[in-house]
Amino acid sequence: MNKIKFASIITAVALATSIGAVAAKPDEKEPKQHFRLPENAVEIEPNVFALGTARDTDGSLVEGYAFVHPKYENGKYGKGSGPKGGGTTCYAFLASGAKWKSVEPYLFNPANTDNFDEATAALQLAAGITEWEKNVSPDIISAGTVTSDPLSAESVTPDGLNEVFFAQLDDTSTIAVTITWGVFGGPPQNRKLVEWDM
Questions:
Q1: What is d(CA 75, CA 85) in angstroms, rounded to the nearest whole number?
Q2: Strand-strand pairing, 174-183 and 61-70
Q3: Alpha carbon 148 to its chain's center
Q4: How far apart are CA 189 and CA 198, in angstroms?
Q5: Which 8-state DSSP code applies to residue 174?
Q6: Residue 76: pLDDT band with limits 50, 70, 90
Q7: Pairing relation of β-strands 168-169 and 48-55?
Q8: Degrees (nearest 5) of the Cα angle 128, 145, 108?
Q9: Which residue, 21, 97, 140, 151, could crosslink 191 as a Cys pair with Cβ 3.0–4.6 Å?
């Protein structure tokens, strides 16, 4: 299998939405949503976990991966080697041809227990996506919808929704987890990304 490299659309988003939340004071009165990787997740690269296969909402067989975004001291990025052959240090593909095939909408629930202003969180998320999309063509993420509905990161099987929300994580050195589902094998023209949750 091709070494796992990911076009981390979401890394910029993770950093944009986590900046204010990390420094905010927690409010222990509100219940915290919790996220944990499933027990069957296998670490295949540092901070990259294979989640196995499942059926997409259209019945296609897809693979899932979780990308754990660690918090670096003093806000400095890690010194990873970065993608090879992608032509940029911003992203690389999981597999040749594995891309979004259409413009993707997303849902965002800005509720959090860190007293981080929800409107600001929504604006920062949108700004992070806009900044990232300045460097890609065509656009792949459409306008998001802010919701108060509970959202979940699908780590067992995709539900057809791209979802972003705040949650308590088991590892306090992690600022975000991105889950991506797609078709990464077979003929390159049939490969695609089908869902992301953060």
A1: 27
A2: antiparallel
A3: 19
A4: 27
A5: E
A6: low
A7: unpaired
A8: 60
A9: 97
Would you state the structure tokens that stand for residue 115, as one six-digit string?
């007293």
Place of tokens 């259409």: 102
Q: Which tokens is 88 given?
A: 């940029």
Residue 82 pLDDT class (50, 70, 90 cuts): very low
Number of C-beta neighbours around residue 12 at 10 A: 20
Summarised one tens digit per residue, pLDDT across range 97-120 is 677 788 889 999 999 988 899 999
Cα separation of 118 and 131, whole Å?
A: 20
Taking alpha carbons only, the member of 79, 139, 146 closest to residue 131 is 139
Instruction: Map 147-166 to HEC letters.
Output: CCCCCCCCCCCCCCCCEEEC
Return the closest-CA partner of residue 163 out of 174, 154, 173.
Answer: 154
CB contact at 8 A, 89 and 83: yes
CA distance 136 to 174: 27
Q: What is the pTM of this model?
A: 0.75
